[in-house]
């Protein structure tokens, strides 16, 4: 059986296969790259119908990365999927506190999820940063609450939590109310690979 073995050739061919699914959306070049990375990560062209990219999202993400911003994640799977070598070239790091013992204890005392407690722990560090949420709707709800009540202002929110309890609602709230630029996918779909792919798509637009 003949099959492609070269990694770059596999990626190039994947993007060629994805391209026709995006033709009808009339996307600009940068937004096409975000859509393509998400669809590639999901293996699902139907994502093209639910992806929402704020008009300022890509520019805001690029500017933040160029300034050396950090990326704050809701779960370790998101942090793992981010290209940390490339991020480090710009001076940034990716963080996740969901497994931190202090955060776990604070969550237990407060009666909230660890992902919520982690976002509270990050606090003002979220200002000017990229927030990447792929698993926990509660983390996204918490960040939106912090923006509204504490004047926290990330540069970009990648909010794509997956699931059936709160996921669709949290992303709809992000899409309809966020004063911060965002990348999201509506409905129940999403997940850590989608969050990481979205972040990497923006990062790969920066030449170094």
Question: Would you kindly provide a written description of the structure presented here, covering whatever features stand out?
Answer:
The chain is an alpha/beta fold and 208 residues long. The chain has ten helices and six strands, in the order H-H-E-H-E-H-H-E-H-H-E-H-E-H-E-H. It has helices spanning 7-22, 29-42, 57-66, 76-81, 84-89, 101-110, 114-122, 137-150, 167-177, 192-203; strands spanning 51-53, 71-73, 94-96, 130-133, 156-159, 182-185. It has a six-stranded mixed β-sheet, with helices on both faces. Strand 5 (156-159), helix 9 (167-177) and strand 6 form a beta-alpha-beta unit. Helix 6 crosses helix 7 and helix 7 packs parallel to helix 8. The radius of gyration is 17 Å and the shape is globular. It starts with 6 loop residues before the first helix and ends in a 5-residue tail after the last helix.
């Amino acid at each position: 059986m003949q099959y492609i073995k070269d990694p770059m050739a596999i990626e190039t061919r994947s993007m060629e296969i994805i391209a026709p699914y995006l033709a009808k959306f009339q996307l600009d070049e940068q937004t096409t790259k975000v859509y393509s990375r998400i669809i590639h990560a999901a293996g699902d062209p139907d994502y093209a119908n639910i992806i929402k990219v704020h008009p300022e999202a890509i520019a805001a993400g690029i500017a933040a990365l160029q300034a050396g911003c950090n990326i704050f994640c809701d779960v370790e799977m998101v942090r793992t999927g981010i290209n940390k070598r490339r991020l480090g070239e710009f001076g940034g790091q990716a963080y996740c506190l969901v497994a931190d013992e202090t955060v776990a204890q604070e969550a237990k005392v407060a009666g909230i999820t660890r992902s919520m407690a982690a976002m509270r722990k990050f606090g003002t560090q979220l200002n000017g940063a990229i927030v990447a949420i792929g698993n926990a709707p509660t983390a996204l709800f918490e960040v939106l609450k912090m923006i509204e009540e504490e004047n926290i202002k990330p540069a970009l929110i990648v909010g794509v939590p997956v699931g059936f309890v709160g996921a669709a609602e949290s992303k709809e709230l992000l899409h309809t109310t966020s004063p911060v630029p965002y990348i999201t996918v509506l409905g129940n779909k999403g997940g850590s690979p989608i969050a990481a792919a979205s972040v990497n798509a923006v990062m790969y637009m920066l030449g170094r």
